[in-house]
Amino acid sequence: MKLLFICSNNFQTLPGGGGSKCTNRNYLSFCDILGKDSVDVIQLATPLKKNLSSILSRFRNYSKGYNAGLSQKVIISILERSLKYNYIFIDSSYYGIICKCLKKNNYKGQIICFFHNVEHKMHLQQAKASPFNFWRNFIIYHNEKSAVKFSDQVIVLNERDLMDLDEIYKLPHISTHIIPISFKDSYHLEKINLQEQTIIPPVFLFVGSDWFANIHGITWFVEEILDHVDIKLQIAGGASNVLKKKFINSKIQFLGFVPDLASVIVNADFILAPLFKGGGMKVKICEALMYGKNIVGTKEAFMGYDLDLQQTGAECNNKSDFIRVLNECSSSKRQKFNIYNRNRFLESYSFTSTLEKFKRVLEKSDVPASKETPH
């Protein structure tokens, strides 16, 4: 059995944003099941060269409904290669037009599309902050609709996204799967003092890229909450570079890009996730669970996770919630390592825990044998 893995995110290395980490998990899952030699990759090039020819070429492709990285030439190449594969896995609903073209070209194997988010819904949120980019939503909607209509199987991260897909596109009678975010376990407990307690004032760590939902959430927190609580706030990732241009506050330490993020997470007392926008699942929560961190976040931050939030940390959805909970955290010490969160990671959000779900995707239906392309 052979599978063609089509993506735009970095599929080989973990450093990067949440999307790349999820893509990496997807890729490694299929390699584990089928063998690395049976999984080939097409990584669509999305960076835009800053010259007139490249800009015009990209907008010509947009006019044809092709998202960044796609073109007629790339589509033709995929169609030519498709005969070699029993499965074609498309790692984003941004590229649903590929599903349509494969079906129209009478591809006989299984087309599997992975939804990192319901991108149409996500882009509507983003367009409120950046109305100039609203035009791209027409392309995104067209591609997602094609992904739903022409895929044989669809994978989402949580029940909410599945419901949103049905509400927006009216899911046809196809196989759907919910596979939550997961990681390979990279935490070595022998290096940790399991009895260590949080300090006063506690260190709260926010990790996030410069993605609009991250910027919205942490900006709100700094403006509305920080002056009312006794904590130290660390901000790591792309969001740090954005906020340090907006805020000067002795309580904030802007870390920027951190080569060894694991040590920063381990050393923090709490993980902070004040997120109100977005979709899918928040990868930073899965990381925090893996490292056994106490987490304070919103309903949106915990979306898709099956957790007892009183044991995980706390859910806060407004100003008064955050002030009350954070003041409780700064008034007394507690265990720094949260064994409940670590165990929930191992049970439900580790790589091995989701591997069986990917196996069921490939076992869902029989597929014809692949045909090697004539030389």
UniProtKB/TrEMBL annotation:
It comes from the Bacteria. The keyword Transferase applies. SUPFAM superfamilies: UDP-Glycosyltransferase/glycogen phosphorylase. Keywords: Transferase. This is Glycosyltransferase. It comes from Christiangramia antarctica.
